[in-house]
Amino acid sequence: MSMLAVEIPYWGQSLLRVLGGLAAVLLPAGAIVYLFLFKMMSFMQSRLGPMEAGPFGSLQLVAEVGKWMQKEDLVPEAADKRIFKMAPLVVLLSTFLLVAVVPFGPDAWFTNFSVGVFYGLAVASVSVLGILIAGWASANKYSLLGGLRAAGQLIAYELPMVLATLGVVIQAESMNLQDIVVAQNTGEIFGFGGLGNPFILTQIIGFLIFMIAVQAELSQTPFDMPIAESELVSGYMTEYSGFRFLIFFIAEFATAGVFAMIASVLFLGGWGVPFEWFSWDTIDSVDDWMNVAGPLIMFTKMLALTFIIMWVRFSFPRFREDQLQTFAWKILIPLALANTAITAILKVAF
Amino acid sequence: MTVLSDRQQLSYIASQAADARLNVELETEGMTLNIGPQHPATHGTLRIICRLDGEQVVWAEPSCGYMHRGYEKLTEVRTFPQVTALVNRIDWLGSFANEVPFILAAEKLMEIEAPPRAQVIRTILFELSRIANVSLFLGDLGVQMGAITPVFLAFRDREYVLNLIEGATGGRFHPNFDRIGGLKDDLPKGWIDETRQTVIKLREFCDTIEDLLFGNEIFQSRTRGIGIIPADIAKDYGLSGANLRASGVDYDLRRDQEIAMSWDKVDFKVWTHPDGDSFARCWVRLQETRESCKIVEQLLDQIPAGPVMTKVPRIIKVPEGEAYVSTENPLGEMGYYVVSKGDLGPFRVKIRSASFNNISIVPWALKGVYVPDIITILASLYFILGDIDR
Amino acid sequence: MPSPYGKGEDDPTADPVEPDTEIVQGVAGGETRLQVFARVKDLDRHVGITIKADVADDQPVIDSWSDVYVGANWHERECHEMFGIGFNGHPDLRNMYLPTDFEGFPLRKDFPLLARMVKPWPGIVDVEQMPADDDEDTK
After folding, report:
1. Exposure check for chain B: N or C terminus, fewer CB within 10 A?
2. Which residues span the domain enclosing B281?
3. Nearest-CA residue of chain B relative to A44?
4. What are A109-167's pLDDT values in tens digits?
5. Distance, in angstroms, between C1 CA and closest chain B CA?
6. Spatial separation of the C-alpha atoms in residues C33 and C40, rounded to whole Å
């Protein structure tokens, strides 16, 4: 907080952190929903998308939020009420917990754990609980099917994600996300420091596995068996309407944004540009204006990765549940293990 | 076109058997799921009652009748032109194709034939309705599998065909254009050239869908080997149209019967596929759309000059007798058995609709499949509710 | 100009048109009231034949065909539901379209079409008396 001229008391800093956390989750969600879900999907399908609310439909999200919030709060009679109401919040909770560990600048971070990666991966699994709870508590056979499919799928795809991240950790020699960013931006490719050393180049297999696993974690097509609109109506979200559905909806896109942020930290160099451009040496010599530019750079990288996630979502049909599991267990995990082994060997050798 | 290997077939059956064994060992109780009348997957209000064991179907039964409109009773109190207007609505996507067999049956009873110009224009409109119907099927196939983009392309390209039908007949979905003895009106000016342009666009659409959907590995793994219907079972149940041809039976009513339409003047291929699986059914329909484009192009060059209506009295009384005419409609074989008592309206019309038989195979076809495959099989069998329930 | 909405609405004092309740029989050449038609087609020789069977008036029952042609199963169900013809040996003769507790057999001629009982058909305006000279135009 030293970049500001005024000394802020601790409670002020905490308040700023909370507000920053909210912005870091909701702003990407809003941007992703408008840019990709409304506009990009429409252009791909040769139509225009929302055009009425605001110039070029930019306020459509505001209209949607208003619409969802003013609906009746229905809870099915046979549903387990307390758990039913809790489920969307659990899913959104995991997103907020995950964003706490993402660095946005040299000093603009919420928490700086030395085991940030470990914490992040652990906390990303909390959403599975929320989905399972939603599926069971809805007292609806479609939701139950969706919840059980989700449980199987999300747990299966956690493993490739962890193993892909392991490769990055080995290469960066640290589990601290800030260190990973610095390692990428101060690194050199064969002596050429102009591009830094984004791990996407050496960890390309890990990157692909991570993106596929993220697509499955978000229940996006081709892995959207839990939702599977043409069979299960809406899967675990069938019985939710109004404000609770809004939370599921926001959580889906916010999680997409946060996972894209984590992927950009791990593979694309996070908030930074290669330090050579401004001749910085270590993290301490980075200028303070980077605390403002860093979030913007991070936002751009996040949008680029989310573009890929959404593009795949709108193009592919969906896998059947057993094909999905086969893909995870028989193809992705061995590949990720091989990637980790090769990274480890190359790290020791060079 | 690649054929399913024995190994792929066996592996699917083996996985189903393994699941069934596990369900028996764990003594799980089944769950009855209603793929209810309101559902995104069924083309209308079809209800399928499934008994599931885990994700496998033990027993499935369609329950129709949510859209029964009593067509056969209604036809008894209408005159023949009024029945034509009514019958448009049985298969509401293949608009013109519903009227044709009925009008042909009435003409057979009256022993008249439409003039050659009318026959050719009837055939062109028939094939255009087939294209309109099947292009929606191709788009809808994507949606059932989860690919949400092809359906928009399908609707966009279908608009061109519907504009053509509207230009000629005045109605996009319910043209009501056929009359006993010919057609209501002649074609408008410029229609033939516009049809030629549209056929080019439709060919591109078929190529796009083939690239986007049929070439996709996920689509292939979702449809290959799923819902195999052998040829003799297909014939037994009375399947017709593309479903029958996808099981390897080479039977097409356009080529195989003498009828007062112009299919004998054109040169087209009847596509069959030896596997009887969902992919085969989808693929055969795609090829048939291309053939329809070819047929329309050839016919556009051959429209003879002349009247579009023979001399018939203004108020038509069809003589006594009975006639059955069936044609190769987009959904299958649709036929009308018309019993006339020499009056203004028919005595009894039996509507043999294609989807009725196509859906009767569902209890047999859905035994032991997984829940996602139910949707695949239903989508590939392609029914329209109005056709099942009339 | 006659009203397109039916003659009855023009002149409320006119008598309502009496529906014709006479049951015409034997139109398709049978002796009893109900006949069952079956149409089979040979796919190789491209020949279709219609088989007609008279059904007894007092007890309309006929043998089922569903063990020979499996596809006849649903057709026989519909026939039973609409006409009341029983099929011996059919595995599962329940209603196809109508609710289970529906009474009556809709497609029989003595089952009235309610809409026609209530109001005269507006389309009746189409049916004018045949002018005498039009008969010469028939082919």
Report:
1. N
2. 71-356
3. B149
4. 888 888 889 999 999 888 888 888 888 888 777 777 778 888 888 889 999 999 999 99
5. 19
6. 23
Question: CB A321 to CB B55 under 8 A?
Answer: yes
Q: How far apart are CA B219 and CA B224, in angstroms?
A: 8
Of B76, B239, B344, which is closest to C127 when you measure between CB atoms?
B344
- Specify the pLDDT at position A7: 73
Cβ burial of A21 (10 Å; 0-12, 13-18, 19+) is middle
Q: State pTM to two decimals.
A: 0.83
Residue B93: CATH number of its domain: 1.10.645.10
Rounded CA-CA distance B170/B89 in Å is: 15
pLDDT band at A233 (very low <50, low <70, confident <90, very high): low
Nearest CA in chain C to B79: C127
pLDDT at C4 over 50: no
Q: How far is C13 from chain B (nearest CA, A)?
A: 25
- Closest alpha carbon within chain C to B251: C43
Domain ranges for chain C, please list them: 32-120
Out of A46, A230, A316, closest to residue B218 by CB:
A316
**pLDDT tens readout for residues A180-197:** 888 888 877 777 767 778
Is B129 contained in some domain? yes
Q: Is the per-residue pLDDT at C16 higher than 70?
A: no
Q: Which residues contact A225 (CB under 8 A, 6 or more apart)?
A: A146, A149, A150, A153, A219, A318, A319, A320, A321, A324, B372
Q: Which amino acid is at B340?
A: S
Closest residue on chain C to B65 (Cα): C97
**Would you place residue C133 in the very low, low, confident or very high pLDDT band (cuts 50, 70, 90)?**
very low
Q: Is the ipTM of this complex over 0.95?
A: no
Q: Is residue B24 part of a domain?
A: no
* Mean local confidence (pLDDT), A313-340: 89
CA distance A239 to chain B (A): 14
Q: Cβ contact (<8 Å) for A316 and B146?
A: yes
Q: Which residues of B touch A221 (CB under 8 A)?
A: 146-148
Domain contains B351: yes
What is the total count of domains within chain B?
A: 1
Q: Which CATH architecture has domain C32-120?
A: 2-Layer Sandwich (3.30)
Q: Could you tell me if B153 lies within 8 Å of chain A, comparing CB atoms?
A: yes
